[in-house]
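Anyone able to model this chain together with zinc ion?
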Amino acid sequence: MTPCFEKRIWGGRRLATEFGFDIPDGSIGECWAVSAYPGHESEVLNGSGKGLRLSEFWEREPGFFGALPDSYVKAGYPFITKIIDARDDLSIQVHPDDAYAAAHENGARGKTECWYILDCPAGATLVLGHNAATRAQFADMVREHRWNELLRRVPVRKGDFIQLEPGTIHAITAGVMLLETQQSSDVTYRLYDYDRLEDGKPRQLHLSQSIDVVTVPEKDGDSMVKHMADTPVNVATEMVTCRFYSTYRLPVQGTAVLGSSELFRIATVTGGSGTLTADGTVYSLERGASFLLPAGGADCTLRGSLELILGRPVL
Ligand code: ZN
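re: yes, here you go
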């Protein structure tokens, strides 16, 4: 799949220097590695859908993706896979669930997302959740700008995994690179932006929506972070299964076999390099490469020294 790149005031250049992507000039914060989101779409590089946009491939080749309910197919390709390079702190934000987004955002999807930390500075923390006991207290603390008291910071390190349900306040912090798997949605409510300016103006905040959708009280911060860096090699270890997707970490040393699956899978090479052999064709895999594996089909073989993050739909 071909990626798209997004300029962000908080973005950097590591998608070029560390992932080898040919990115536009400026502060590039996001690589949308696999996406069918309108205006930010991947194209199929090779195989049966070569040259198609992912949304076209989704419509024209349903067999590739497996036996999916009609309503699921009609809603469009369901995920966005991103690689994020935060040179600076991102805004403090929260996403709605499907029901709230459908009602308030013209039928958009909500956003459940998850992060696999590719790199971060020693001692890094992420903003994950908050300390308010009630929605009223949350609203008071927001209005009174008591950010240090309100926002909860949780330590993270490379190889950590975090599942973010809608309603969980979160922010990526400076120096973090991560792989994100999320619902195909762009609905973000910004709670606080450190009073920064973009082109001389503060970016829009969405305080009332944030107060509407925030989870209160939030669950314990440490339980949100799962360390995945030491999972066994040549085995896909599950990181999470939620109502939308499952994600896995698969470190490969030498040879690993990926068995077939009833539904399509998404994969991104997050480190190292190697090859994928499928149906007699050998594809080279470099860091940053993303691909879709078809439903059904024969086993495929991964060779080399690499790390993959895999995702598959949950129906
Ligand atoms: Zn988010």
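The helical segments are 14-17, 54-60, 62-65, 70-74, 98-104, 135-143, 147-150, 207-213.
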